[in-house]
């Protein structure tokens, strides 16, 4: 039997869904004309529809820890492009203060990994080593690795079958403190 805390969260989810369904008034199915795919981190502080002030159905949002582009993400983006043919833009959206980036930095420095973080370390670890070898200052390391990770994701998507179906693959970093998205030239 679930604990009281679990039941309370579940109840809030149920109530939130009832309110959402009531406010939707007509269903979500009429809002299916996305013009952008946003691939971002799984961090719950990053909510692309709010960040870009876009209504439901205007963005296809894909997530994983650290917004690491891999074969699975390329396949997911390709699937979305097959179903929503008029999507001209894919945005790889990193964010400040990324826990996955911090975990990769810690793993590289200490030679250890947090539980279930090997995929993140495999993808971001080489970028950490690159930043350290360039002499990036300690206080700038998370931001630099975040930039390198977004740039690597953009490059991987531009070199994949995704590039055949979209006009642009764009990199960006969302600042959790200010709410501002910085568009990258990468």
First-last Cα distance: 51 Å
Give the H and E element order: HEHEHEHHHEE
Class computed from helices, strands and strand pairing: alpha/beta
Rough shape? globular
Spatial arrangement of strands, main beta sheet: 2-1-3-4-5
How would a crystallographer describe the biggest sheet?
5 strands, mixed
Mean pLDDT over the residues: 90
Q: Which regions are unreliable across 5 or more consecutive residues at pLDDT < 50? A: none
Give the number of DSSP strands. 5
Total of DSSP H or I helical runs spanning 4+ residues:
6
Gyration radius over CA: 18 Å
Helicity range? 40-55%
How much strand content do the residues show? Answer: 15-25%
Explain how this protein is built.
The protein is α/β, with parallel strands linked by helices and 186 residues long. The chain contains six helices and five strands. It has helices spanning 4-24, 48-51, 71-83, 99-110, 118-133, 141-158; strands at residues 36-41, 59-64, 89-95, 168-174, 181-184. The protein has a five-stranded mixed β-sheet. The longest helix is centred in the N-terminal third of the chain and has 21 residues, at 4-24. The radius of gyration is 18 Å and the shape is globular. 31% of the residues are buried.
